[in-house]
Structure of Chaperone protein HtpG:
Amino acid sequence: MQTGKIGVTSENLFPIIKKFLYSDHDIFLREIVSNAVDATQKLRTLASKGEYKGDVSAARVEVKLDKDAKTITVSDNGIGMTAEEIEKYINQIAFSGANEFLEKYKDDANAIIGHFGLGFYSSFMVSERVDVITKSHKESSQAVKWSCDGNPEFTIEDVEKEDVGTDIVMHINEDSKEFLEENKLEEILDKYCKFLPIPVIYGKKKEWKDGQQVDRDEDNQINETEPAWTKMPSDLKDEDYQKFYRRLYPIGDEPLFNIHLNVDYPFTLTGILYFPKIKNNFEVQKNKIQLYSNQVFVTDSVEGIVPEFLTLLHGVLDSPDIPLNVSRSYLQSDSNVKKISSHINKKVADRLNQIFKDNREDFEKKWDDLKIFIEYGMLTEEKFYDRAMNFFMFKNAEGKYFTYEEYEKLIKDNQTDKDKNLIYLYTTNTEEQYSFIEAAKDKGYDIIVLDDVLAPHLINKFEQKQSDKRFVRVDSDVVENLIKKEDSAKEELSWEQKQDLSPVFQAVCPEDKDYSFIVDFQDLGEAGAPMVITRSEFMRRMKDMSAAQGGMNMYGDMPESMNLVVNTSHPLVKKVLESKDKKLGSQLEKIGTEIAAQKEEVSVLEKAKEGKKEEEVPQADKEKLDELNSKLAELEEAKRNKLSDFGKKNKLAKQMVDLALLANGMLKGADLDKFVKRSVELIK
């Protein structure tokens, strides 16, 4: 028996592996099985070149669990090793600058393993001792057994082994007993090894017999050696893609369609990406793309490796140009990964464009399930934005679809304002904003539906890109003001008149902490609604964007500002105003006379102050001015109170405000009940 010391220049290697890979220590099985697969493939290669005469048709890797012996054994019938090769590949980890490297990467064991092929040593994370029993494919080779208990010391001795290949026997330590459970091992193998290119056997297939699971004679192969992405697209049918999707994701909706990637220059990349149905609430389902390197699972956390918006997709990417065992920060800075990311971005856009061109009708049917993904890409990737403009679609309130270019042609003649801006009218809810939509249609306008969570951000992006285009929500103003064609010729009330009328209708606006109301008066014509509630486009859009970002800015906390537009030409409004004049006319006239007199006196005193310093103004005049201003404020307050009291008691005024609220879906609960009862009273 030979004994020796592993040629590592720092004895800290084992503690580093054990400590810093502990959080992800199930990776040991991937490493050992992957090494076994490599050994098997190497022997196949030698056989294909005539350098090995043995039979390689039954190439396989077998994983065995022995709970009593507390061992996990990974066996292959691959290339095997001689004693000299063990010395070279296992004992002499004397790479240059090892001390310096270990010190630099002591907090990142993945980097150690990935850079220097130390995957075998990950077995010591879970083992108190590891035995390697191996026989080389070379003629007349002596089988040998190498043993190590996790210290630099090892033993090596000759043993009997009939078949070519290697057995790695891991004697599981007390801290890792969880890996001695059959289901746990099966779960790890399914995660890391289910698409390896060599058959991986784990026990026997089971069947239900006499009330319990029993082993059958058939080996349990846990992997699919030729998954769909390794085949040519021409060799696959739609059902093959669907079947593979179900292999990846047994639960969930069917995908909309897929992209099959097959690139061999300037890097190698294969894979299948699926477009899932994405919900409007934008619950980003990360960890859905699985990253492989030569069919060996690397990670399902691909943020920073592929463009952010592509993390919404499902599927598989495989590239031997992606390092197998390195940290994500390393992956993100790797030049090949960046090239791959850029290429996938382009391929996804090209595929979407091709689907749009080949079958626009089907593309339109899938648009509502697809748009969030496309919008997210347009918002986060400039190159994708430019490409997506070819197939981005607007859906209008009639349910018809248009490309950006088609829609511009449709509305250009009728929806260009007096300042040459093209106005895109949109709705976020066709039911709640129905009356506004109908009013706009009556004007000959077309309305698009932008009802998803990313719409406010996308609108801003469109407006930034094209300054002569504006998006206006259909309920942001009265229909006459949505698209200003010319300066208004209608007579508007003076500011003083509005001040006199505002308290009447302000008094019947709902008191709600979420809304604030500003009363305005406009001539909307006798056929127009008596009152219309509109929402400031700017403030509402800011609040929508705030909500999408979690409400973490000042707009999220502010009450929403509403405009209550009173139609001064409507007969019902005129009726309220006539009632106001009849009941309060003489009282308001008397207060008005007093206010005018007070203002006149104030004006005289203010004029007398002109050109004088503060100390030059007589004290008596100052006191008189303060007294007049105080009296004036009292008169103004008294006038407002009388108008407010009148408004509160006027059922017709309240009814018209409630009708406007009802049209906006804002009348609910007790207020809706009162409205119904009041309606009955007014009808009688």
Q: What stands out?
A: Residues 69 and 171 are 8 Å apart (CA to CA). The mean pLDDT is 84.
